[in-house]
Amino acid sequence: MPELPEVEVTRLGVSPYLVGQRVTGLVLRRAGLRWPFPENLAKKVVGQTVLSTSRRGKYLLVNFKKGSVIIHLGMSGHIRVLPNHIPAELHDHVDIVLGKQLLRLTDPRRFGAVLWHDLQDGVIEQHPLLQKLGIEPLTDQFDGAVLYKATRHRKITIKQMLLAGDVVVGVGNIYASESLFLSGISPTTPVHEISLARYKKLASAIKKILAEAIIKGGSSLKDFINVNGESGYFQQNYFVYNRAGLPCKVCKTLIEQLKQGQRSTFYCVKCQK
Ligand SMILES: [Zn+2]
Description:
Layout: H1 4-18, E1 25-28, H2 41-45, E2 52-56, E3 59-63, E4 67-72, E5 78-83, E6 92-98, E7 101-106, E8 113-118, H3 144-150, H4 158-164, H5 173-182, H6 196-216, E9 256-260, E10 263-267
Antiparallel strand pairs: 1-6, 2-3, 3-4, 4-8, 5-7, 6-7, 9-10
Bound molecules: zinc ion (ZN).
Zinc ion is lined by residues 248, 250-251, 253, 268, 270-271.
């Protein structure tokens, strides 16, 4: 599934083709994906110029004067910029036409979303899907102190808190396992037992791992295809993720796997306490 780095890589890839361009058409080939498409979406965007793009968590935002198109890639979605004569295929559900080019959303499993937020309803951060999201991990506001303060009275494990996304967004399963390894924290540690010093290490590890993944062009999704049409799947050299039974790259202890809230966690019992 596309994680924060894939969404950011997508945004960086499509942005130069969108910003400053006027929308000349909108094609919706079904009534909706995870949710119905907004009524009158064409009326909102056709004729309007894209002012900017941005991202909040895994939501990609295409910003216009009067509001924003909110795109979520779901489990298997990707968007590309293509010449406008390329015929749509089975899983191509939405085209935002920009003159001779179009932005095409492809989503075989249809868990993605295309929504509209009108600025008359307030700033985009107040949209119901965005307002409860945790802090962005790659901003200066995110650090160990944020994690420490948010966890003094909570009982869940650190791995589950990271995946929940209400304290910090965008730390998916791969990045949670890897950042906990890099910071030497066991995934089963209750969040209120972790010291400020250890949270500082964890926050640094999260930033480092996400930034590296963005640089490498996204890492976790076979279906992810970047704007140039080449696969964004990148076989990264993980320390623990998907390495159950293999020797730890630091201490040679065999990597263990366990289930936490339906998700597999990979960790080294010796390096992570
Ligand atoms: Zn180890």
